[in-house]
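Run: sequence + NAP -> complex structure.
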Amino acid sequence: MAPSASPLNQNSKFLIFGGGYSGQYFANEIRKLGCLALTSNRSKKNNEYSFFFDSSSNEIPAEHIFSNTTHILSCIPPGKNGEDPLLSKLQAKLESLSLEWAGYLSTTGVYGNTDGNWVSEKDTVNPLQERSKRRRLCELNWINSNLPTQIFRLPGIYGPGRSTLESIIKKNIKVINKKSQIFSRIHVADIANSIIYLLKNKNELDFHQIINISDNHPCSQIEVIKFSYELLGLNMPQTIEFEEAKKMLSPMALSFWEENRKVSNDLLCNKLGYQLIYKDYKSGLKNCLGLIKNRSKKLYV
Ligand SMILES: NC(=O)c1ccc[n+]([C@@H]2O[C@H](COP(=O)([O-])OP(=O)(O)OC[C@H]3O[C@@H](n4cnc5c(N)ncnc54)[C@H](OP(=O)(O)O)[C@@H]3O)[C@@H](O)[C@H]2O)c1
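>> structure
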């Protein structure tokens, strides 16, 4: 049997709501395939590939932005009361477009605390933080919409320009030690490329509405920081024990330490066959270092 044509082709048009770090990265990867990708921001930009969308404004995107759209991706975090900023403004409009696909970037925060145990898509959600409860409400808004929704649950996102390397360079880091504390993470390139992989192979793969995207190596934050100092050729300062550090942390920073879980990528990588570009923080951070070296070369030529 001849393989069926990829559902992603040059007639595909993507609207990416929330053209921030992950949204812009995704747009750039999609454009490399010859598809049209427009991204939204809350400030007006003089660029034909971006458009204005701010849920706190009554201004909605012009009709030509929506015309011929086949796919949308929302990278916008929940509103203050748990409303989804995009659906609360544009759900009816988006439902009228007969979209092929509607992606939503969510967080693994909806799983809550598992005292370091693995979580998978099959687990019942149990959000602990208020922001994770709001996120779950948004997930439910998307699931209950009439859109062809697919939700991606993400742990800590890092990549070029946004990693522990930059935090060290900007002296914006505390080296905190908390016994048995595990975090999961994902390189931004793997967010974009795994979603593209799923879209390209949509006709052959089983559809799953909720998919975790995380790397193979959940580990302590201190392990990552130690490696980052080594990569930069700098000495790591003395560690601060968590009990001491918590007196200095903001409530937001503290809330991240209240949850301890390992996010499974078994569905994405084993069952659906996506091959991670950056399997762990070591390969991912080496990639991030490349950008830092390029920037500093430019500063000195
Ligand atoms: N960062 C992480 O480690 C992490 C981890 C897991 C999940 N997530 C979630 O994954 C998604 C993407 O993350 P990211 O770090 O790439 O996001 P980001 O860089 O912070 O970008 C967020 C985007 O949403 C837009 N936005 C925010 N509020 C809006 C509103 N009320 N109306 C319209 N647009 C709005 C922002 O507009 P402007 O461009 O104008 O600012 C920006 O383009 C987010 O939902 C985030 O919460 C993040």
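>> summary
The chain has a mean pLDDT of 94. The longest strand covers residues 101-107.
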